[in-house]
Each structure stands twice: as C-alpha cells, then as structure tokens.
Amino acid sequence: MSRSPLAVLANAVSSENAPALPGSAADYKTEILSGLTVALALVPEAVAFAFVAGVNPLVGLYAAFLVGLITALIGGRPGMISGATGALAVVMVSLVAEHGVEYLFATVVLMGILQVLAGIFRLGKFMRLVPHPVMLGFVNGLAIVIGLSQLEQFHDPQTGGFLSGGRLVLMLALVALTMFIIWIMPRLTRAIPAPLAAIGIVAALVIGFGLPVPRVGDLAQISGGLPEFSIPMVPLNLETFGIILPYALILAAIGLIESLLTLNLVSEITGKRGGASQECVAQGIANVVTGFFGGMGGCAMIGQSMINVSSGGRTRLAAASAAIFLLCFILFAAPVIEQIPLAALVGVMFMVVIGTFAWNSFRVMRRVPRVDAIVIVLVTVITVLTDLATAVVAGVIVSALAYAWQNATRIGARTFRTEDGAKVYQIQGPLFFGSADGFSELFQVENDPDHVIVDFEHSRVADQSALAAIETMAERYTNAGKRLVLRHLSPDCHALLRRAGQLVVESDDDPNYGLAVDYDVRLGALGGGH
C-alpha cells in the first residue's frame, strides 16, 4: 500500500530511520576514520566549488558541513556523502554575479522546498526510468569531471599559472606516491583506511622536509566560527520570486538527479537498497537549513561517497563523522589542515576516478545494441561538456526514442477465417503512437468480408494515437458497409477504450466482461481522430 505524502515526510525523520550504527568497536573505528578521510578530501573540494560559484570559501565549507550532517542523519542511503558540488556551483555563478550572495541563499531555500515536495510526492521513483547505459555514462562522465577538476590544484599560488619545472615534477611525484600508498596499503593492513594513511604519510614528508608544493592554505584560509542563522536579505515580492525560481528549479533538478544516481550506485556497491523518496526529503531539508545558515547548498558527492565506501564506511556514523570533523577543522584545526599538501588530496581523488570509471563499459559497448553504446558515449560527453541533468535527460530521451522505434517496427498481424466467414486480424505487438501507421497498413478494407474481428490477445492499446487508429479503421469499414469489432481486450485496454467512449457495451456497467466478448467501436468518440 502506498503511503500518503505526509507519511513519507514523517518516515524520513522518525525513530525507525534513526542513524544506523556499527556493531563492534572495530567497526566504530573504521567508520570514524573513514569519516576523517572524507572530511580531509572535502576541504579543497568545498573551497574550489565556492570559488567557482563566486562566494567566500566559508560559504562552501558551511554547506558541506550542514548538508553532509543532515543527509547523513536522515538520508535514504547510509554511508552516502553530500556537500557542495561543482554541478551546482556552475549554475550559481551567474546568479551571484548578477544579484549577489543573498539571492543565492534565498534560491537555496526555495531549492530545498522543491526537493522536499519531490520527496513527499514520491517523484524519486521516476529514477527507475533511467536505463543502465545512462547510468554507465553518468559514472564515466562524472569520473572524468572529477579528474579534470583536480587539474586546478596544479596551479602556482603565486603566479596563477600552471606549475612548471622541478615543482611540477615534485607535485606529480607526490601524487604518484599517494596513489601507490593507497594501492599497496590494503595488502599490508586494513587497520587504517588507505586514503587516510596516504594523506598522513605524504603530509609528513612535505611538512618535515619543507617541500615547496601547494598546500590547502594556498587555496584559502578555512578558519571561521559556527554558521549563524540569518534570513536571506532579499525583498519578499514577486520580482524576487521570478528571479530565484528558474535557478531553484534547475538546482533542485540537478541536485536530485545527481543524488539519486549516486544513491543507486552506492546501493549497488554495498548491496543494500536506498530510499529514493527519503533521500529527496533529506536533501530538501538540508538545503533549506543551509540557505538560512549562509551555505551555498549541495547534493550527493559521488567522489567522496566512493572514498567513504572504499574506506569501509557503511553506516550513518561515517558520513556524520565527516561533517563533524569538517566543522572541527573550521573551528579549531585550520592551521594544521592548511598545511596538508594538495598533492595528497589530488592523489586520493585520482584513485577515486580510477575506481569510479566503469572500465568494463569499453567491453560492454562491443556487445550491447549500437543505440545503447551511443547512449553511453553521449551521456559521458554531455556530462563533461555541460551538466549532469542535461546529460541524463538527453540519455533518457534517446533511449526512449530508440525503444519506441524498435516497438513500432514490431507491429504485425496473423489473419485467419472463422467458421462463420468472419476474418480475424490477430494483432502482434503494442499499438501506440509509433506503430499506429503500421497498424493501419495491416488491413485490407476492400477485400475483407462484411464481418472483421480485431483480436488484441497478443497486443496492448497504449495511448491516444492507438485510440485514433482504431476509430479510423472502424470508420473505414463502416463507410464500406462492413462491421469491425474488437476482441480479447485486456482489463487495462478495456478501461482505456471505455473511458474514451469508443466501446459499444450492451450492459451499462459491464463489470465482468468475458475475454471473448466482441465490442463494437463507437465512431466520433475522438472527434473523428483529428
């Protein structure tokens, strides 16, 4: 039984969905250390995305803390990490440039309200319409985007240009060392997450020997206080609503698409299902709160989610720990965190890219239908060049059109005569907008007998185009002085035609019609099909 919209909201914050906790002391240690690893990786990402959006770095860090903590506690997939993301930042930049940061905060609040409504009305279930080739393209495109975003860390803080000479070689060597430690560490011990060990070892080398490579502090100063409650300072009128609504709609769509696709990916890896509607509500509540506390909003982060999962994080404790550690960095440990070399964090993210990219898609594309291979490449390219929402919508549209075309070509009919001389057209394949013309071409009105039966035992009547095609054929037979009837309508097809007023039914209620009942077609029910 489906729950009411309010029940969905209540379920998201009820005690039944309290944070899932580890079972043993060792599990607690793994979850907390995984959260620490994620928090370290969140710092440069949040700062970089704040720069992309044109806001203060603390606006990005506050968003990473608030969105991360709230979704960790009430989200639909324990272990999934949320925070400020580049996919949202690139949309925000024009709003901030034209109207200022206060309009951004108001937009984030409205974005969150829209996401809560999406969860209440269970719109997350439509993610099941996303085909697997689109998922592969999404994963590959996002992996490439994460990899390309790390190139920004190779800039010289003094000149603004790319590193060169010995500093570039040293940076690359430290990145390679980080990646090697992450690769070899699980073969030696699993007492500490490999990414955390790599960050610690490389940071110790850089700080101990005073190596001249960019550090977190070169991006921005991350020290600050607790986020403070503040109502966005914007005029409360229709003009303001008209400004922020388009941005809020785009941000809500991108945020939910990225979050729900990440939820599906993490669910596949962990072998546990996630709650799509609950995740929508959690993302919405998180963004509403973030907008009132000076954050830039956010959504699920596939890179940090992969770090968490690969480090052993499986429960809500890991994600909540990441958010709390991040806040501690801002309040107390900024001088220490600012000394961490960017090379270590870049190496962690490059390993995330390698682990996230669906390398088997190259093999899959040689075996699946050509259209599916095209969709994988299309979604990957569009994700890199534009944004995730556009890529997913484009992939779904192409897949849907391909599916419609394939089914449109499957319409056919087997014909035979009954003992009383009637001709039966036994339709094969679905009747819908794509196959309506093919359906019409099956009939030979001039050569058919006076009584024609259209048998839908192996077919389905799907839409208005199908209804119009049936009415058109019935009219052609009527004009030729012949009778066309329908037989073997399934319950859903019967309901569709009766609701359209096309069936001529002997009984007014016709509650239990037989499968072999013949129904006449009422002409003009759809206005002549025009």
UniProtKB/TrEMBL annotation:
Pfam families recorded = STAS (PF01740), Sulfate_transp (PF00916)
Q: What is its main location?
A: membrane
- Annotated coiled-coil positions are none
Can you give the residue ranges of the STAS domain? 412-501
Query: What CDD domains is this protein classified in?
Result: STAS_SulP_like_sulfate_transporter
| Compartments where found | Membrane
Identification of the protein by name: SulP family sulfate permease
State the species of origin. Limimaricola variabilis
